[in-house]
# Entry
Amino acid sequence: MNIKVYQLFKITVFNLFLVSFLGAIMRYKIAFYFPFLEQKHLQEAHSHFAFYGWITNAIYLFIYKILKQTISKKKLTGFYNTIFINLFASYGMLFSFLYGGYYWLSIVFSSVALFCSFYFLFIFYKNYKKLTSLSRIWFLGGLFFAFFSSLGVFNLSFMKITHHISQDLYLASTYFYLHFQYNGFFIFSCIGLLINTLENIGAKLNSSEIYLTFWLLFFSCFIGFGLSVLWLELPIWLYLIIVLASLLQVLASVRIFFWVKKNWMLILEKLTPLERFILFFVGVAFFAKVLLQLASTIPAVSQFAFGFRNIVIAYLHLVLLMCITGFLVLKLLISKVFRLNRTFALGIKLFLLGIFLNEFVLGINGILSIKYISLPYSQYILLGISFLIMLSLLMILMNSKKSISQKYGKYS
# Structure
């Protein structure tokens, strides 16, 4: 099947629209009576499709687009086929989870997507030295964490098969998978894409600086898993190591900030106002994430964070929507895959407004839940925001035309 990169990116945007559509249905079921589809099945379909149909697929495509510049067409076939198999598995998960939640068919499709990530890591490693960009180590690190996160999934499967389920181990395995997907695969891949963007606009990057920052974040990500299990009775020495890892993560994040600051004049010249705004938007969200993780090392804060579901939901949306999705949309703009007209640009702006309002309301709900107070009409407000996000993505999708000209700054 010979589908062009532009068409694959359009499918990926459609997948993001489907994620928003499922999110809107879930919130409609909370606000109003809707007898069709179980909420738990909707949540499982929504989360799996967001991970694999949207984020993983977008990252694979961006890496594939970068590799096209350096390796032969024959060697690209493995990457191309893996993208298609991952897409197939993503849609399989979408419909099977909607139908019956976790059962044999949804597990089969989940396993296919998981093994796709293993194979993508394998073929990327084989071609690692052919990629000259400094971003390559970040992509390799991200793909490694995607592989490593699967240990949590395998442990969950083992407990279900043997029927020996420990509640603490079950939660720890779930958080293990989520931590190394969010803070490992997703974040490292996005930093790799940031470095690639800076290189493409002619930024001067120091390789020693890039590698040092990588290893700081790499080791802090490993130890940082402890932040997800602070509710366990950890020895004091281990707790202190986790605090140190959190500080290293802050240090690495500050160093990344200085990469951008150092090349800001070049960014002003090469990026459009809309692209610069999204970069700032994502940067603020990323630093909020890092500071919240640092704050969670305080036992009282950690107790609140893990004790209130609304706070957990707000944090996960901060990372998944404002940081990861926001950055991937930025990379889509910078890559000039689509032609930017006024309606497309308006769709992007409404989408950013929607995810900001979503996080704002979830954050207020999370804070109020500490005092067991509920924000009045929050279910209707969040439903309205979900429709805003969904309609903005529909605007983007309907105006996703193949880019012809590289000059579209006037619409930003």
